[in-house]
Amino acid sequence: MISKPEAHLLDAIRGVQARVGDGLNDDEFTRLLQKTALPVELGFAFLSYCDSLATLSVPQQDLATWYPDKRWIAAEKEGIARSIAEKYKLSLCEPPDAKYLRSDSPNPHHHLELSNRWETVIMVHPQYLKIRLFGSVSASAHAQAVQEPLFPGTDLLQTLSTFYQA
To answer: Are 121 and 115 in contact (CB under 8 A)?
Structure first.
């Protein structure tokens, strides 16, 4: 299946979703998107879709630039995250990669999460990038039903690419 050519990866994914509607579950929609000619944008390519989050592959990274002390995110990356959070009016947190982090864990790293008032909307990791394409716009009881496109028509991937530049 060939999708309508669109310049931006996130807009292309939303465009396919708009054309097929809500009849597919996340697994079916992921498989459809994997067979669709989606653009690769700034080194980001589509991997999967689940719970309104698009998971994207990222350019190859040197983990030393992300984790200079082998655990916490580098100050430079954290600074980028703070400026992006401010630009998009999001909050920033730095949770561990694993839910139950032991002191002898082989992967004691953290990643960056940017959230609006209701949910995580961006997860930045040196191995992947997750972006919520549709999300809650209010804290009402009907927030699950009221899902709107997040970051439409923005330069979000351009902004996030600063994390992944050599």
So the answer is: yes
